[in-house]
């Protein structure tokens, strides 16, 4: 058994690609605000193909909350698909940036 009764927070990395009407609808600022609220680090950027790509690291349960948020997006976004890839955290980020 674990002593101290603390919950072990598993730090992971998630890479998310969101497609649909997701550029020019405040999706990146919305993502950043949500990531900061959840204590995540990483970045979000618009891709040339019209998708938005997010790389984030932090507690696994909070990354899952970010994924859930991405399925709704901002109120102007029309989400078609959310691709999610789970990886091991690299620890390379110190903040959450809009690229």
Task: Write up this protein.
By secondary structure, the chain is α+β, with helices and mostly antiparallel strands. The chain has helices at 27-37, 60-72, and strands at 11-21, 41-46, 52-59, 78-88, 96-98. A hairpin with a 5-residue loop joins strand 2 (41-46) and strand 3 (52-59). It starts with 10 loop residues before the first strand and ends with a strand. The model has no long low-confidence stretch (mean pLDDT 94).
Ends apart, CA distance between termini: 43 Å
Order of helices and strands: EHEEHEE
- Please outline the major beta sheet: 5 strands, mixed
- What is the overall number of helices? 2
Reconstruct the topology from this structure:
Layout: E1 11-21, H1 27-37, E2 41-46, E3 52-59, H2 60-72, E4 78-88, E5 96-98
Parallel strand pairs: 2-5
Antiparallel strand pairs: 1-3, 1-4, 2-3
Attribute tags:
99 residues, alpha+beta, 2 helices, 24% helix, globular
Concise structural overview:
The chain has 99 residues and is of the alpha+beta class. It has helices spanning 27-37, 60-72, and strands at residues 11-21, 41-46, 52-59, 78-88, 96-98.
């Amino acid at each position: 058994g674990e002593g101290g009764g603390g919950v072990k927070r598993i730090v992971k990395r998630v890479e998310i690609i969101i497609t649909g009407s997701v550029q020019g609808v405040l999706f990146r600022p919305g993502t950043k605000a949500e990531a900061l609220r959840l204590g995540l680090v990483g970045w979000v950027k618009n891709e040339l193909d019209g998708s938005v790509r997010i790389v984030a690291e932090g507690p696994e349960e909070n990354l899952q909350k970010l994924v859930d948020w991405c399925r709704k997006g901002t109120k102007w976004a029309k989400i078609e698909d959310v691709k999610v890839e789970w990886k091991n955290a690299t620890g390379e980020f110190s903040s959450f940036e809009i690229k």
